[in-house]
Task: inverse folding
């Protein structure tokens, strides 16, 4: 199996930290959407899913603050600090601004506009993309927590999109708890208030059908959303306590729901409770990776976790021409994906590398480590040169960049995979030294 070049890892490590920084508190950027007559300027604490200005021609327009993506980026901030220590003051300030921004956009006392603010400035060619007035006017109370994204200036999303989506607050609570464990001096009342608000939402909606992580209808009980909700509740019990036992009871309900998603064909978990047998999704593995459990029902090394990953490997090995003759396959989202032709994704392929590095660190499994190295080597082969921003996807035949060319999630995913590699190398070296 191929192994990644350490010099490339080092260069991409710094480049990914810089790409992530460019998308966070990006007050130096602005975006004018001519079809809507709308200019938006990011404010401090916002996270652009991509800092690129694009118009679906063909590169997608990701100049938005997604709750899910921003949580994934937040969790990688300590790694960005380690990659570029000179930026530490920026990142510490960003975390505080992120907390304030997140509290503002989720404020239950806030009311949405009675009329879509872009209705008067939108061209006829774009009117079908406007969000209905009634939907915006209904935004108040906990409804804000079901929003998948907002404009990076904090205003509500005026465009049509799939809603509600419940993974964002769960991921944000878990990410903030993880960051505060690394940077305890930032555990200020505002941080605790955001965690408490997000956990209260997770508790209210845990187990309901909603839009899944890839934001495609219909609403369903996706295993990704169930797992990230379980993880947030489980972490919340440890951090905040659970005197009434409500979070524990909700976590147990989720465990029972996950049983309904067990797949008899593969031995793994299906994409959702509602999915047919044999329909799996890489997001399930990303949720298991996000939880990072080494024991319990959702351990990364558990039988169903391993079976889910193995079944997806087999599926993508057959599906993508780029995988012919490879030791490990490029990983997409799910087998029937058609978005931008359904290519392999950087976050999922890097996620499988990180997952196997973590398995190797925990178990000493040399085969898992070799597979992780092969996945990172694959990313090295397809990544743009010189090291810089990483795209969302790479072509299923040629490996060339596809869809968004600078995805902030991809930068965070690389930092996580590289950190997991360092952990695995140290753990396995220590195990070998103890065995001599």
Result:
């Amino acid at each position: 199996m191929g192994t990644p070049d350490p010099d490339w890892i080092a260069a991409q490590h710094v480049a990914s930290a810089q790409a992530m920084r460019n998308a966070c508190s990006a007050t130096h950027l602005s975006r004018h959407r001519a079809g809507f007559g709308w200019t938006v300027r990011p404010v401090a604490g916002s996270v652009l899913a991509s800092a690129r200005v694009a118009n679906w021609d063909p590169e997608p327009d990701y100049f938005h603050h997604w709750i899910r993506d921003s949580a994934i980026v937040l969790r990688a901030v300590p790694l960005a600090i380690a990659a570029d220590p000179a930026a530490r003051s920026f990142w510490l300030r960003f975390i505080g601004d992120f907390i304030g921004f997140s509290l503002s956009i989720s404020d239950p006392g806030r009311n949405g506009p009675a009329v879509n603010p872009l209705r008067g400035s939108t061209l006829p060619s774009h009117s079908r993309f406007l969000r209905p007035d009634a939907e915006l006017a209904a935004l108040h109370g906990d409804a804000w927590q079901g929003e998948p994204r907002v404009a990076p200036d904090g205003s509500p999303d005026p465009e049509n999109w799939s809603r509600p989506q419940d993974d964002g607050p769960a991921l944000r609570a878990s990410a903030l708890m993880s960051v505060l464990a690394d940077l305890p001096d930032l555990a200020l009342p505002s941080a605790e208030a955001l965690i408490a608000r997000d956990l209260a939402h997770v508790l209210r909606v845990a187990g309901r059908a909603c839009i899944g992580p890839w934001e495609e209808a219909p609403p369903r009980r996706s295993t990704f959303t169930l797992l990230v909700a379980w993880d947030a509740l489980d972490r919340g019990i440890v951090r905040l306590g659970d005197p009434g036992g409500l979070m524990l009871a909700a976590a147990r309900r989720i465990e029972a729901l996950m049983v309904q998603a067990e797949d008899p064909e593969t031995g793994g978990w299906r994409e959702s409770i509602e999915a047919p047998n044999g329909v799996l999704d890489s997001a399930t593995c990303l949720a298991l990776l996000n939880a990072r459990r080494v024991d319990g029902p959702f351990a990364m090394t558990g039988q169903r976790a391993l079976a889910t990953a193995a079944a997806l490997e087999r599926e993508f090995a057959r599906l993508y021409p780029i995988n012919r003759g490879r030791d490990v396959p490029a990983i997409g989202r799910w087998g029937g994906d058609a978005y931008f032709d359904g290519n392999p994704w950087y976050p999922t392929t890097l996620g499988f590398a990180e997952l196997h590095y973590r398995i190797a660190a925990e178990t000493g499994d040399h085969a898992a480590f070799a597979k992780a190295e092969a996945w990172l080597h694959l990313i090295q082969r397809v990544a743009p040169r010189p090291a810089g921003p990483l795209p969302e996807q790479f072509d299923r035949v040629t490996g060339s960049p596809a869809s968004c060319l600078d995805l902030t999630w991809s930068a965070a995913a690389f930092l996580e995979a590289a950190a997991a590699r360092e952990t695995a190398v140290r753990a396995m070296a220590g195990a070998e030294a103890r065995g001599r």
DSSP finds 14 helices and six strands in the chain. Residues 167 and 213 are 7 Å apart (CA to CA).
